[in-house]
Amino acid sequence: MKERITTMRLGDRRKGKTDWARVDAMTEEELERAIASDPDSDPPVDWTKPPIIIRPPKESVHLRVDRDVLTWFRKEGRGYLTRMNAVLRAYMEAHLPRQSR
Q1: Reported confidence tier of residue 48, pLDDT bands at 50, 70, 90
Q2: Which residues have CB under 8 Å from 66's CB, separation 6+?
Q3: How far apart are CA 42 and CA 31, in angstroms?
Q4: HEC-encoded secondary structure of the chain
Q5: CA neighbor of 44 nearest in space, from 54, 31, 53
Q6: Are 1 and 7 within 8 A, CB to CB?
Q7: 3: how many CB neighbours lie within 10 A of its CB?
Q8: How far is CA 61 from the centre of its chain?
Q9: What backbone torsions phi and psi does residue 39 show, to the nearest 5 degrees?
Q10: CA–CA separation, 3 and 83 (whole Å)
Q11: Residue 30's pLDDT band (cuts 50, 70, 90)
Q12: Is the pLDDT of residue 32 over 80?
């Protein structure tokens, strides 16, 4: 599946429904409050202490998988093998004893 790339020029930002004059007039604190009150906004990410996750090195294996399973993962796009690994990891972690997690 090809990813669509959208190109936008600086002058194009004024062509939407957003009241950019109002946004430009807001202070940084007002912007932060408005963003925090937006139910669709993601919480801010604290990059001061990012989690460090060291995964064991990957190992190449030959794995026989049902055709429909492989087709479904491939339809999800690039990185399907990484997603398959993530599904297997989640299953493994869900079945580890509590103290091993």
Answers
A1: confident
A2: none
A3: 14
A4: CCCCCCCCCHHHHHHCCCCHHHHHHCCHHHHHHHHHHCCCCCCCCCCCCCCCCCCCCCCCCCCCCCHHHHHHHHHCCCCHHHHHHHHHHHHHHHCCCHHHC
A5: 31
A6: no
A7: 6
A8: 27
A9: -65, -20
A10: 18
A11: very high
A12: yes
Six-digit token string for 9: 């020029």
Task: Give the position of tokens 């990185």.
Answer: 79
Does pTM surpass 0.70?
no
Place of tokens 């060291």: 54
pLDDT of residue 13 exceeding 60, the answer is no
Tokens of 14: 């004024």
Question: Using CB atoms within 10 A of its CB, is residue 73 exposed (0-12), middle (13-18) or buried (19+)?
Answer: middle
How long is the chain? 101
